[in-house]
Design brief:
Blueprint (H helix, E strand, L loop, with lengths): L2 E12 L38 H13 L3 E2 L2 E2 L1 E5 L9 E5 L5 E10 L2 E14 L3 E4 L9 E4 L6 E7 L6 H18 L11 E11 L9 E4 L4 H20 L7 E6 L4 E7 L9 E2 L6 E2 L2 H9 L5 H12 L3 H7 L3 H17 L19 H20 L13 H12 L5 H14 L3 H7 L8 H13 L2 H8 L5 H12 L6 H12 L2
Parallel strand pairs: 12-13
Antiparallel strand pairs: 1-10, 1-11, 2-6, 3-16, 4-5, 4-15, 6-7, 7-10, 8-9, 11-12, 13-14
């Protein structure tokens, strides 16, 4: 029997507000344990929550960016359960009447577009954090850090529209991109500001009814999420085919073993005894405010990708890489504008073009350099283009190097070497080229002499070439490049060598 998976995802995203959702405590990450707390977020008797307006604004931004309907009235509720890092014994969340619902995002998987529905986006407060084995005297001890308690969250609940782990990961990446572009969440999975729970079930292909689901927790990377979902799908299929029944439960992903393990039986909504939060009035949002927020929305990742393809005539793959972050997209556009405005654009043959008559337009030249050289160097150093001190190649410097290639001052091979040195040292590319004597050899007479000397030193290869072994042409190119220390003008060398060999 063939089976298909039914997957729904619950994403918790910490909002980038300066203070917590119901009090004025700082939300800054990394502070000493229990130093960013007050009577409100510690759940002291007699304290009252006060709603953070900026948190509501950020939640509405995400709703608008994902085509959700913003409800004119929503209710905060108490979600009751006991956990050591939940000081009040309940969490302020939303349930029956959430802030927003009925949205969607479109994703691309294996070249096909798929729409994933969003059931709702609701606001809630985060819990604290348990620290296990933090004492050198007693490795079995656990401690509670309540700095995170009360940090504003939005929970984004998808429809059960996802069928594969690939779709799940693409959906999560798309959500994360939107959150980061909106500047309402940093998307840091390691620090827990972007977390995901997955509800996974399987059913025979063609069956309409859903199977029994298991909830997967403890996944802090896209790779682990994919592995956990794939393992759980296979586990449930094996259980069914062995004559067993899948149990509704919460399972943890053991990343070391690559398996999911049972944690506890899965609670139902009634287990939490939801009821309206008596200390908070219903949240009513004015349509005028929604329109004001809508006008502040930036160009979102999907829109930017589509525009890059149309405006710059680059492949969809390039556009996807270049719009991965807002900072990278801005850097690319700045380079293109400066390059198109300053650099020469010789017709018929541009940087990196293969074969005669091909033309690579400036936007694609810049794309190739960023994806091939800049991102490689950043990855090797573990840096991010969003960091102000990440590297020294500002767009004006970048374009200066590209112009030197176009003008024939240096060839492509030399340019890549110079680019790396500029990246590491911050030196001006022109001073590097001049100081190291890297100027491209474009003097026809000088190149002819080098070619003639090389052919004279390779009589056997020359005879073999004239006898029909035309593959030796690349050998002659290599030898000439070696003799000129890689500084020969490739196009001129190719032309002159063909002429000398034809004699």
């Amino acid at each position: 029997m063939s089976y298909e998976a039914v997957i729904g995802l619950e994403v918790h995203s910490q909002l980038l507000t300066n203070s917590k959702v119901f009090c004025g405590c700082s939300t800054k990450f990394g502070a000493e344990a229990n130093t960013q707390v007050c009577p409100v977020c510690l759940g002291m008797p007699g304290t009252l929550p006060v709603l953070n307006k900026t948190a509501v604004e950020y939640a509405v931004k995400m709703a608008l960016a994902t085509h959700c309907k913003v409800n004119d009235k929503s209710i905060f509720a108490r979600k009751n359960y006991f956990y050591p890092d939940l000081p009040k014994g309940y969490q302020i969340s939303q349930y029956n009447e959430p802030l927003t619902q009925k949205g969607y995002i479109d994703i691309q998987v294996n070249g096909a577009e798929k729409r994933i529905g969003i059931t709702r986006i609701h606001m809630e407060e985060d819990a604290g954090k348990l620290l296990h084995g933090e004492s050198y005297e007693d490795a079995d001890s656990s401690f509670v850090d309540l700095n995170r308690a009360g940090v504003p969250l939005i929970e984004i609940v998808s429809e059960p529209d996802i069928r594969t782990s690939d779709e799940a990961v693409e959906y999560l990446k798309a959500l994360r991109d939107i959150l980061v572009y909106l500047e309402i969440c940093d998307g840091n999975m390691e620090e827990g500001s972007f977390r995901c729970d997955a509800n996974v079930s399987v059913r025979p292909v063609g069956q309409k009814e859903f199977g029994t689901k298991a909830e997967l927790k403890n996944m802090n990377s896209f790779r682990f999420i994919q592995k956990a979902i794939e393992y759980e799908i296979n586990r449930q299929i094996e259980v069914i085919e062995d004559g067993g029944k899948v149990i509704q439960e919460t399972r943890l992903f053991d990343s070391d073993k690559g398996i999911t393990v049972s944690m506890r039986s899965k609670e139902e909504a009634h287990d939490y005894r939801y009821f309206p939060e008596p200390d908070l009035l219903p949240l009513q949002i004015d349509e005028t405010w929604i329109e004001e927020i809508k006008r502040t929305l930036p160009e979102l990742p999907a829109e930017k990708r589509e525009r890059f393809v149309k405006e710059y005539d680059i492949p969809s793959y390039d556009a996807g890489v270049l719009t991965a972050t807002k900072e990278l997209a801005n850097y690319y556009e700045d380079c293109v504008k400066k390059y198109e405005g300053q650099g020469p654009a010789p017709a018929g043959f541009k940087q990196g073009a293969k074969g005669k008559g091909q033309e690579i337009l400036p936007p694609k030249v810049v794309s190739n350099w960023i994806m091939g050289e800049l991102l490689r160097l950043l990855k090797e150093d573990g840096k991010d283009i969003a960091q102000p001190s990440a590297f020294s190649i500002q767009p004006s410097v970048f374009v200066k190097l590209l112009n030197m290639v176009d003008a024939g001052t240096i060839n492509l091979k030399t340019a890549k070497e110079v680019f790396e040195e500029v990246y590491k040292t911050g030196k001006n590319p022109e001073s590097i080229v001049k100081g190291k004597g890297l100027v491209q050899v474009s003097d026809e007479g000088a190149l002819i002499k080098v070619i003639d000397d090389m052919l004279a030193a390779s009589p056997k290869e020359l005879a073999d070439y004239k006898a029909g072994k035309e593959k030796l042409f690349s050998f002659f190119i290599g030898q000439t490049m070696k003799a000129t220390k890689g500084q020969a003008n490739p196009q001129m060398l190719n032309k002159l060598l063909q002429e000398r060999l034809a004699k």
